[in-house]
Write a structure and sequence with these properties.
Elements (H helix, E strand, L loop, with lengths): L25 H37 L8 H11 L3 E6 L4 H11 L2 H10 L1 E6 L9 H10 L6 E5 L5 E5 L8 H18 L2
Parallel strand pairs: 1-2
Antiparallel strand pairs: 1-3, 3-4
Helix pairs in contact: 4-6
């Protein structure tokens, strides 16, 4: 049995059995893999969009979307409303931060308490190098924020009232945080 090396004029190969498969066409070598890649990218995009829409909907329902982003604006609002300030240092890439948000901050009872009792401020540590974030960067440096999630409460005059340390292994996380929040608000109003 011989292996054809060059196609003959009739059908491309002699009518002998081939020991190696014939060369594949441009369609099977390039087009089909390209189609599979494009379909995969499209599917990823659809799933990513759906996940993003769900996250946005979750944030609007009771997440952190309505928290202040500016420390200066938060202090102005706190003075006007005579409320303490709750400063939350976090990042999107931080798994404990996302767990704290999901398991504690977005729970209805905690979210309602935060909205009623304090002026909440969300400080994304990834934005601290931006020029407009100077106040937040100075506060992080002053407090020596090294680990996130990290949460502090201040009275409306800027005096530190307390710090909350998230421990994911504790039971009843929303209850413990709510208790800390209420005690901090009482301290802030008493001027301690």
């Amino acid at each position: 049995m011989s292996i054809p090396t060059e196609p003959s004029g009739r059908s491309g190969y002699d009518n002998e059995a081939l020991a190696v498969p014939p060369r594949s066409s441009l369609t099977s070598r390039v087009l089909w893999p390209l189609v599979f890649v494009l379909v995969g990218i499209g599917a990823w995009g659809v799933l990513n969009y759906a996940g993003g829409a769900a996250s946005a909907a979750e944030a609007e329902k009771g997440g952190l979307a309505d928290w202040e982003a500016s420390l200066e604006k938060a202090f102005e609002k706190a003075k006007a409303e005579d409320k303490p300030i709750l400063v939350y240092f976090t990042a999107d890439w931080c798994p404990p931060c996302q767990m704290f948000k999901k398991e504690v901050l977005t729970k209805a009872e905690v979210d309602g308490l935060i909205k009623e009792q304090v002026v909440p401020v969300l400080v994304d540590v990834d934005t601290l190098q931006d020029k407009e974030r100077e106040a937040e960067m100075k506060l992080a440096a002053k407090l020596k924020v090294e680990f996130i999630p990290d949460m502090y409460m201040f009275d409306s005059e800027g005096n530190r009232v307390g710090r909350y340390s998230f421990n994911p292994s504790e039971s009843d996380l929303p209850g413990k945080f709510s208790k800390w929040l209420k005690e901090g608000v009482a301290k802030a109003k008493a001027g301690e």
